Structures are given as structure tokens and as C-alpha cells.
Amino acid sequence: MSGIRMPGRSLVALAASLAAFTAWGATIEILNTDSPGVGFNDKTAVAPVGGNEGSTLGEQRMNVYKKVASVWGKQLPAGPVIQISANWPALDCNASQAVLGQAGAVTSWHDFPNAPKTGTWYPAALANTLAQVDLDDGAKPEISSSFNVNLGKANCLEGTPWYLGLDGNAPAGSIDFAVVLTHEVGHGLGFATPTNGSTGLQPRDTDGTRYPTVWESMMFDNTAGKTWLEMSAAERRASAINPRGLVWTGANVVADMPSVLKKGTPMLTVKSKQFPDVAGVYQVGPAAFGPPLSSTVLKGGMARVIDQADGVIGLACDPLSSANAALVAGRVALLDRGTCNFSVKVKNAQDAGAIGVIVVNNVAGGPPTGLPGSDDTVVIPSVMITQADGATLKTALTGNVLATDKITAVLGIDKTRYAGADAAGRVMLFTPNPFQGGSSVSHWDTSATRNLLMEPAINDDLPTFKVSAPKDLTLELLKDIGW
């Protein structure tokens, strides 16, 4: 039996206060590690909000944590007490983005009593539960967690504060702490693999021996045709940046996925006899504005917006010239990302007669993100594709007006596939290129619909305190690893 403290996690000295919550199955203790007057100890008077009757800011924060502990405890089997250290430091943030919170297992263990697999790392809370004993005799908490105390303040997503209600009715422009906390505790319980995605290396024991994690046998790369357990470190490193190519094969997730995700994967199909190299199916990120893609496909010739009078190529940030308007009228316009809002580009193409828009990303990597924004006057569909895919299409279209009617774009959805899963019905893990530390691999892919709790960014439509099918798949993955 052996355990290690996971790298990259630090704990401050534990303060005296402790909140324990005994639920139907598991008992969870919250260890308040904040300094006096900070975080959970903030005595600022506040009014009750959304069922949270705490009279101080710190008390309301703790009330949310107790509720989340209750939700998770009821889902987990009985075992040794699960201790979670919790505090409110100043995490990274600026005017446009912020780290909301972070959490993870403090230690991992292998070859402990009742371990389902030998030579395999399990997160501390799960390992203790399987062994039915606290493997480090209470020397360390099982999970550490931190949340951004500055959220909503100047230069930290100013005007976007935490919502501390318990009712799931976070006002627009706020961030529901209960949802973020439920997500982070999920990581601490085991919704993460400590295998290093940026290097492909498995965690190493104190004697230098590397062992696989419990995740690896259920992480399957569709390109390589292997699980991470079967791969070399170099192959795992490549898999971690294989956009929408890495899937989860655990039986519980696979069985319950159809009750959670919806059918209809957005896609662009390109057809061309004259330019066979561009024909194929392209991954797309759909727009948040305009009509959604549907099973009723939109089909038309593809045309690239060419140089504007000011020398900018394909941006469509101004009304299209007469030459460009003639190119895109009645066709699907190919535009480049940059300079102005996506909705502006699409509206200008629409005003010129385009029936749809494809925006080419201006940075390398994938998968393609969606097009954020809003404009109720946009009535044509639009999507984003990767820079590499855009280069392929632009090579055929650049300087070749005749190609405009020789390349056909078909925008729609594949109703045979669940959004967020591969063709075999296995849910995709988040593997963007380039690698995103803290997000890659240990989350579901952002293409999942419905939105899932364990995606790398919190979505506004997540139901509060729901972690299992038919609302979510977090508990199903935890069951797959042994809970």
C-alpha cells in the first residue's frame, strides 16, 4: 500500500473551525482554513438571499458549502470521514476572465486493502472508502479547495459577483457559487486524472515507480485506437491535444448517456468534385445568435470574401463592397475572425445576400469554439471552423472565382449522433489543442448538449445540485472509477 501527495497542491495551516455534515451515505467535514475576517470568517452583514439565511458574508458562504456537502454525501457510499479544506484566496483574474475556484485530491493511493485494481492510483477519498479506513490516519484532508475572494471586484470580472443563494436563481451577470462548488468537489472526489496530459507521464511513487491512474483504462483515443493504459507517454501527450478524439468508455456513463445528452451534432459537410482535397466533414462551433443548425440542412455554394478597399482580407467588419456582395449573394460566405464582433460580420454578410456564414479562426488549434454574441436581426446560421480547416478551404477559393460554384457547403446537424459523444455513443473528454493546463482531459468536451456540470467552463443553464442522470453524468463517471 502506498500513497503520494499530489503535485501542484498546497495547503495552509488548518484553522480551528470545522463544519461536519453527516449525510445518508458519506460524512463530509469542511475545514475552514481562512484567516480571521477573510472568506468564511468575513463578518460583513448581508441580507438573506435565495433561501440562504446567513447573516454575514462568511456564514452564507459556509451555508452553501454545507448544502453542497449534503448533496454529495447523499450520493456516496458510507466510509471514513471525507475532509475538505476550504478557503477564499485571491485567485488569478483580470477584467475579462477569472479563475473561479480550484479543487483536487490531496493524495492518491495504490495497492491498499480492497483496491479493485493492483498497481493503480485512486484519489484519497475513494481509496479510503474502498479500504474502509483512513489510509493516512487523518494526517491530511482528502480534498483541498479554494475560491476567488475577489470575484466581481475591480479588475476581477468587475460587476460579476458570486450568488450565494440556494435556489438556483442566480441573477443575470452573477455566478452561482453552489454550481461552481459542486463542480470543484466533483474534481476532488475523482473527476480528474493526475496523469500529466502535457507530458503523458503517469504519477510517480516515492520510490520513483510510475503507476497508471484508475482513469486510464477508460480513456480511449479514437485516432490511435488505444486506451491511455495501452499508450506510451508520448502517445498520451498526443492524445491530450487530439480535439474531440478522446472518449470515456466507462460502463455507467455509456449506459446513461442517452438519457442526458441530446441527439444532433452540428457539422459542416463540404462537397466538391473539382477540388476533392477539400471535401469532407468539418467540426464546427455554432453561433449563439441567429437560427440554430437543424436537421433541415442549409446548402449552397461557398464564396470567400476577398480584399476590402482598406486592404483587410475577409473580415467583413464593414458593409461588403459590391464585388464581395456579388460573390456571397445566395451563397455561404467564408470570413476571417478578427477586429469586430462575430454578429457584426454575420449581419454584414446577411445584408449582402449570404444565406449562411463560416468564420475561420485566426489562431491555431482546435476544436472550433462557438460564436458568442447577440443580434435579433440575424436570420442566417453561422459557425466557426479551425484555422487549419479554413486554410484548406481558402486555398481552393483564393483567386479562383470559378471555385465559388464548385464547392458546396452543407450546414446542419447529424441526428444520429449525440452532441458531445462520438459515433459509438461514448462521451468526449476535453482535449483542445493547444493543451490547457487545469482544464484539458479532466473535463467533458464543450460540445456536450445538454451542458454538463464537469465542462471546463460553468454554463448558465446548469441545474443546481444535480450530479447524475438524467440531468448530468458526473456521478456516473465517479461510479465508473469505483465509487
Automatic annotation (TrEMBL):
<feature type="signal peptide">
    <location>
        <begin position="1"/>
        <end position="25"/>
    </location>
</feature>
<dbReference type="Pfam" id="PF02225">
    <property type="entry name" value="PA"/>
</dbReference>
<dbReference type="GO" id="GO:0008233">
    <property type="term" value="F:peptidase activity"/>
</dbReference>
<keyword id="KW-0325">Glycoprotein</keyword>
<dbReference type="InterPro" id="IPR003137">
    <property type="entry name" value="PA_domain"/>
</dbReference>
<protein>
    <submittedName>
        <fullName>Serine protease</fullName>
    </submittedName>
</protein>
<dbReference type="InterPro" id="IPR046450">
    <property type="entry name" value="PA_dom_sf"/>
</dbReference>
<feature type="domain" description="PA">
    <location>
        <begin position="315"/>
        <end position="393"/>
    </location>
</feature>
<dbReference type="GO" id="GO:0006508">
    <property type="term" value="P:proteolysis"/>
</dbReference>
<keyword id="KW-0732">Signal</keyword>
<keyword id="KW-0645">Protease</keyword>
<keyword id="KW-0378">Hydrolase</keyword>
